[in-house]
Specification:
This protein has helices spanning about 60-70, 75-80, 90-100, 105-125, 140-145, 170-175, 185-190, 210-225, 230-235, 240-265; strands spanning about 75, 135, 155, 180-185, 200-205, 235. It has about 270 residues and is of the alpha+beta class. It has a domain at about 80-235: 60s Ribosomal Protein L30, Chain: A (2-Layer Sandwich), CATH 3.30.1330.30. The strands form two sheets. The chain has a four-stranded mixed β-sheet with strand order 2-5-3-4, sandwiched between helices. A two-stranded antiparallel ribbon has the order 1-6.
Length: about 270
């Protein structure tokens, strides 16, 4: 009889045979370390928001903490006013007018004075014409213009820090019946007057062709800010966090369920 022979195992790498990855040298026998797969998708991590794991700089953390505190605390109407600036369309109209009355540069002023002096020498008559109408800026200067009622329209930035620098200015404008507006950015006001930032600016006069436009803006400012009784009484802040909101809602739902249960028992 022919002697039976056992079937041969397929060679490593042949069809049907599986080649195991060899463990890395020096690794544990029970938990062997395998080499990383460099195939497609083998080294791609899942999408994860790593923002919460980042150690942010201290100034960023302070900014965020300040924002949260300002949302949590209740603030009086005088401060809440600065969280409700003029709308984008209203600000566009105001800045379109302000850009026509940018202050003179040093070079332009020197040329104007030089021309006036040359005219005085030539004709012997002094030029009595008023200097060009421009936007006035500077906190002390604007305050003096409001107190003397020379200011026709005052614009105050909402992002002044500390806000105590300008928090009293709306009340002063109301007292002297000067129209005022709270606008979005101190850097935008600074751009108009050639500065990096400006806390407030004022218009004292405009050319004849812009008087109607100024009158419209004055009426709009009075309706929105000066005479707005709701704005004078509305408190701001008091915004709770997400966990507190969910806890309060759960408590309210439990109370309503208890009331419904009692009403059902009594009925």
């Amino acid at each position: 009889m022919a002697k039976e022979t056992a079937p041969k195992k397929p060679a490593a790498g042949a069809a049907g045979g599986k080649k195991k990855k060899a463990p890395l040298p020096g690794s544990s026998i029970k938990f062997p370390a395998r080499p990383r797969s460099q195939l497609l998708g083998g080294n791609v991590l899942p999408k994860t928001n790593l923002g919460r794991f980042v150690k942010w700089p201290k100034y960023v953390r302070l900014q965020r903490q300040k924002k949260v505190i300002q949302e949590r605390l209740k603030v009086p109407p005088a401060l809440n006013l600065f969280k409700q600036p003029a709308s984008k369309n209203q600000a566009h109209e105001v800045f379109a007018l302000l850009n026509k009355y940018r202050p003179e540069t040093k070079k332009a002023k020197a040329e104007r004075l030089k021309k006036a002096a040359a005219e005085l020498v030539a004709t012997g008559k002094k030029d009595d014409s008023a200097p060009p109408a421009v936007v006035k800026f500077g906190l002390k200067h604007v305050t003096a213009l409001v107190e003397t009622k020379k200011a026709k329209l005052v614009l105050v930035a909402c992002d002044v820090d500390p806000i105590e620098l300008v928090v009293w200015l709306p009340a002063l404008c109301r007292k002297f019946e000067v129209p005022f507006m709270v606008v979005q950015s101190k850097s935008r006001l600074g751009e108009v007057v050639g500065q990096k930032t400006a806390t407030c600016v004022a218009l004292t006069r405009v050319n004849k062709e812009d008087e109607a436009k100024l009158k419209t803006l004055q009426d709009s400012a009075k309706a929105l800010f000066n005479d707005n009784k709701e704005l004078l009484r509305k408190w701001g802040g008091g915004k709770v966090g997400e966990r507190t909101r969910l806890r309060v809602e759960a408590h309210r739902a439990a109370l309503e369920a208890e009331r419904a249960k009692k009403a059902k028992m009594l009925g």
